[in-house]
Amino acid sequence: xxxxxxxxxxxxxxxxxxxxxxxxxxxxxxxxxxxxxxxxxxxxxxxxxxxxxxxxxxxxxxxxxxxxxxxxxxxxxxxxxxxxxxxxxxxxxxxxxxxxxxxxxxxxxxxxxxxxxxxxxxxxxxxxxxxxxxxxxxxxxxxxxxxxxxxxxxxxxxxxxxxxxxxxxxxxxxxxxxxxxxxxxxxxxxxxxxxxxxxxxxxxxxxxxxxxxxxxxxxxxxxxxxxxxxxxxxxxxxxxxxxxxxxxxxxxxxxxxxxxxxxxxxxxxxxxxxxxxxxxxxxxxxxxxxxxxxxxxxxxxxxxxxxxxxxxxxxxxxxxxxxxxxxxxxxxxxxxxxxxxxxxxxxxxxxxxxxxxxxxxxxxxxxxxxxxxxxxxxxxxxxxxxxxxxxxxxxxxxxxxxxxxxxxxxxxxxxxxxxxxxxxxxxxxxxxxxxxxxxxxxxxxxxxxxxxxxxxxxxxxxxx
Length: 464
What we know:
Blueprint: H1 17-26, H2 33-36, E1 56-61, H3 80-83, E2 88-90, E3 97-99, H4 103-106, E4 112-118, H5 125-134, H6 157-164, E5 174-177, E6 182-183, E7 187-188, E8 204-205, H7 228-245, H8 251-269, H9 271-275, H10 284-290, H11 294-307, E9 312-316, H12 335-359, E10 366-371, E11 375-376, E12 388-389, E13 393-399, E14 406-408, E15 410-411, E16 418-420, H13 425-435, E17 443-445, E18 451-453
Parallel strand pairs: 1-9, 1-10, 4-14, 5-8, 5-9
Antiparallel strand pairs: 2-3, 4-13, 6-7, 10-13, 11-12, 15-16, 17-18
Helix pairs in contact: 5-13, 11-12
């Protein structure tokens, strides 16, 4: 049984040293919440505008870099070594072609804006990925297996959203699933965490596989040795402690902590937060539509999370078991064979997400971003594959705040270089911030109180 008071010399406010030690170590009594939900304050953060087009954002990051030729920017009139073996198909928007392995997505181009002149000028997975998710080029460019840390510790898009936007229903504002993006050997890319903003702004990382039977998040359930009554008792105890501390000098900081503490209780005790992870509640037909794969069910989980109030969910492509090129989009050899294994998984999940959001009336308030760290070379190599290419590639946006049925920018005749409408990662991030109602040139403060601008880029006005 827990007690607030015990014997010992009291401090100046009447609470004993032992009580302070017990309070400091009590937390939630061994639950996993310190790893799930870190305390954060946003008093120095820019405010989100009322009436923003998008309330939430789902970002898909396709590990390895899909080729622009076989996805969003086909070149049917180019020579065979450029256009590849696959042919384009007409979308539901006259004049906009997509790759033949995207038949389901082709029915939704009226909802999608395609950026065909995205540029990083970086051909390394990890450093180009850093640029895409932070809006700042890696120093230096072209560093494979780059490690997180200074000077390349700018915060990710998700970290900034977590700093600026309050969480809802006990859930954090930004979540990454089902794993971090990493090179072979589990070498995690930089630019996926909060960087110099500090760990409290890290997006919540959920390592999971939602398509497995009995899927659940361990940290959202009570340990076997803690009953509901015992949990409620600890919550009551912490409430009493906080009431005793309300009059302290740093009550403002304590108040911010109390908000997070309440969110933590809501996360475990609240049914809405827990149920967001119950993908098994969805119909078999819908789950089949997303695809019974790790990526497909992660996309379904992302929809449930934004429906529950999460502002940003990043879904990273996970390697497909027993697939060509180690199950990701790094098709250095046998490009066509690899795409025939991966594209149907992507096509099903992406198109079903757009349909699902639209049918639920959520698409207009949910920004959906299709992106990768770079594209592929304009010409096939000697192994019938395409190599790394950051000099031009494609990104697609749909939903909240986006003018569908549009193409912005163009590559040259071989999809090797931008011809017009070049877009840099900082412009993409500025556009995402804009759609979310966050003024892209507003300032927030880092952990040392230094002013930092949300984005140095320009909003892509042609698609919003």
